[in-house]
Amino acid sequence: MKKPWVVGTVAILLLTGVAFFLLNNLQKPSVPIDEKEPATQSLSDQTTNSQMIASFGEFDVDNELIQYYEGALGYYAKPKVEGSYSGVVMIHEWWGLNRNIKDMADRLASNGYLVLAVDLYNGKVAQTSDEARELTSSLDQEKALNNMKAAIEFLRKDGAVKLASLGWCFGGGQSLQLALSGQELDATVIYYGTLVTDTEKLSVIKWPVLGIFGETDTSIPVETVNEFYQSLQKLNIENEIKVYPGVGHAFANPSGQNYAPNETKEAWNKTLVFLNESLKK
């Protein structure tokens, strides 16, 4: 059923040209998007900095590199305490599976999840925007989908009760691609990924979706977000999309020019609440 237009679930507030959306469902980036980072830094370790975004939860965590797909080594983090947990496939930014994504996997796992951070680049990690752009443009999408589906199967075999995907930028797009592929999930999380408005393509999604976007993101205009929302409304897909006023693309990237710390922390807390409601109830 469609959610009512109320703050906290599905709402659109327009404030003097600033769009603030709490909508329903989300989408993915189909083309590489520059993440606007300082060119003077080594970027493979200067992306989503978990220490600035998220604190650890109640569980101590074990982690290891595991082979889950045709030689691909993923970073697997899970609570040390044996129990019944849901699983999350975490998908890296266009830089690759770097240290900070692994740290985010640890922090999410500490909240009571089995988290497999996949590697869609076969071990390669970009150091510059040009390298990252080359990696994304040369990606075989069919293999990427098979990679993520293998991660889902790994988590399922390891006892995951429910399953979700989560990604930032490039990874946000891949998170939606996984949802659109027909892979059965229980939740999808996308941070500022390019949107799809085709209702026929979106109709395969049968579970809640959380989308996080920036109002001044020129690569994903607010108008497109609204079009996407209208398509989701027609399909009665349970979802929540938030567009943060005054912030741009990759606002959750602490090394980038668009970093917005308050919005980043709020978005992560919203993500934890969403996953808790979608996977633990």
Report on this model:
The protein has 281 residues and is of the alpha/beta class. It has a single domain, classed as Alpha/Beta hydrolase fold, catalytic domain (Rossmann fold, 3-Layer(aba) Sandwich). The protein is built from 8 helices and 10 strands. The protein has helices at residues 50-53, 99-109, 129-137, 141-157, 170-180, 199-202, 222-235, 261-279, and strands at 11-15, 18-22, 61-69, 72-79, 86-91, 113-117, 163-168, 187-191, 209-214, 239-244. It has a 10-stranded mixed beta sheet, sandwiched between helices. Residues 74-277 form the Dienelactone hydrolase domain.
Query: What do we call the CATH homologous superfamily?
Result: Alpha/Beta hydrolase fold, catalytic domain
CATH topology: Rossmann fold
Write down the overall geometry: globular
Relative strand content: 15-25%
Describe the largest sheet: 10 strands, mixed
Fraction of residues in helix: 25-40%
Structural class designation: alpha/beta
* Total helical elements: 8
Please tell me the overall pLDDT: 84
What's the architecture in CATH terms? 3-Layer(aba) Sandwich
Organism: candidate division WWE3 bacterium RIFCSPHIGHO2_02_FULL_38_14
Domain Dienelactone hydrolase: 74-277
InterPro entries: AB_hydrolase_fold, Dienelactn_hydro, Dienelactone_hydrolase-like
Protein name: Dienelactone hydrolase domain-containing protein
